[in-house]
Design a protein that fits this description.
By secondary structure, the chain is of the alpha/beta class. Helices cover about 40% and strands about 15% of the residues. It has eleven helices and nine strands. The strands form two sheets. Strands 7-6-5-8-9 form a five-stranded parallel β-sheet. Strands 2-1-3-4 form a four-stranded parallel β-sheet, sandwiched between helices. Strand 1, helix 2 and strand 2 form a beta-alpha-beta unit. Helix 1 crosses helix 11 and helix 5 packs across helix 11. Bound molecules: phosphoric acid mono(formamide)ester.
Length: about 325
């Protein structure tokens, strides 16, 4: 059987960063290298071509201290496809529950000589903290309301696949912007490609600094739909007390929910959602499975993006 194989040195023309803590500090060359490799990995995933186990012998711990379906599963699958020794850390059954500190946990993980730590945590900045307190390479899988770089990258890759050219594309991020690490990673990344980025949602969901990031703010969903080529729809993050900023979820849904009727204002608009979706709150089921929706394609792209990131970090 033929194994997936190519010369990664043709793609890596510069040193890739040691850590991936956010898109803000990735340059366009790094992102384009990720996307070139993503395309190759995606084709292997779709065609079910066995992977060359090019990270065989490398170890990784998936340190998820917040829940996850897509990110954790796709990281683990990417790690296994590349031949890594992958360990999943379960926060609830760990000694964190006995009062051990996060730093001590990190030091114990370091003592086991993991090559990579993939971290998800409710504290903004924890990935950066890890880079300063361990020798492992750190990949941020979502830190508080700061960044979710692999999600941002897979979202942008999905847009690039569909539209080819990103410059001057109009992309609107809709919903709970103030609690969203996905929003920030998308804004940082899309701006690097010259995308016209906008946000839309109730004013209580708009951080005060938002216009300083060079994005347009729409307060009505109708205007956002009419003026955009694509929407990236976010859920209301109730676990971060976002509900206290709204009269009710049904009120949010009434004014900002994406319905088939609203899509008729711009029938060709593309719909993205990072998941998890709260169906019939920010998005109707019919929209999520419509021809406009790229939501499940995003998940496939997420697996390929993670393979590309490991490969590039391993070759730096
Ligand atoms: N998009 C995302 O981060 O989904 P999970 O929380 O399921 O990983």
């Amino acid at each position: 059987m033929e194994f997936l194989n190519w010369n990664v040195n043709k793609i890596i023309k510069m040193n890739f960063p040691n850590h991936l803590t956010g898109i803000r500090n990735l340059d366009l060359k790094d992102i384009n290298s990720i996307f070139q490799l993503t395309k190759k990995y995606k084709s292997s995933i779709i065609n079910k071509t066995p992977f060359e186990k090019s990270l065989n012998g490398k170890s990784v711990i998936n340190l998820f201290l917040e829940n996850s379906t897509r990110t954790r599963t796709s990281f683990e699958l990417a790690e296994k496809k590349l031949g890594m020794d992958a360990v999943n850390f379960n926060g609830q059954s760990s000694s964190l529950s006995k009062g051990e500190s996060f730093l001590d946990t990190l030091k114990n993980i370091e003592a086991m000589k993991f090559d990579y730590i993939v971290i998800r945590h409710s504290d903004s900045g924890i990935a950066e903290f890890c880079t300063k307190n361990t020798t492992s390479k750190i990949i941020n899988a979502g830190d508080g309301i700061n960044e979710h770089p692999t999600q941002g990258l897979l979202d942008i890759y999905t847009l690039k696949e569909e539209f080819k050219e990103l410059e001057k594309l109009n992309v609107c991020i809709v919903g709970d912007i103030s609690h969203s690490r996905v929003a920030l990673s998308n804004i940082y990344g899309l701006k690097k490609f010259g995308v016209n980025v906008s946000v839309c949602g109730p004013i209580s969901f708009m951080p005060k600094y938002i216009e300083g990031l060079g994005v347009t703010v729409y307060t009505t969903i109708e205007e956002a739909i009419k003026k955009s080529d694509a929407l990236n729809i976010l859920r209301v993050q109730l676990e971060r007390d976002a509900g206290s900023l709204l009269p009710s979820l049904s009120e949010f849904s009434k004014y900002y929910g994406i319905t088939k009727k609203r899509l008729s204002l711009n029938p060709d608009i593309k719909i993205l959602h990072p998941g998890p979706m709260n169906i019939n709150v920010e998005i109707d089921y019919d929209v999520s499975v419509s021809k406009n929706s790229f939501i499940f394609g995003q998940v496939t792209n997420g697996l390929a993006v993670k393979c590309a990131i490991f490969k590039l970090m391993n070759n730096n």
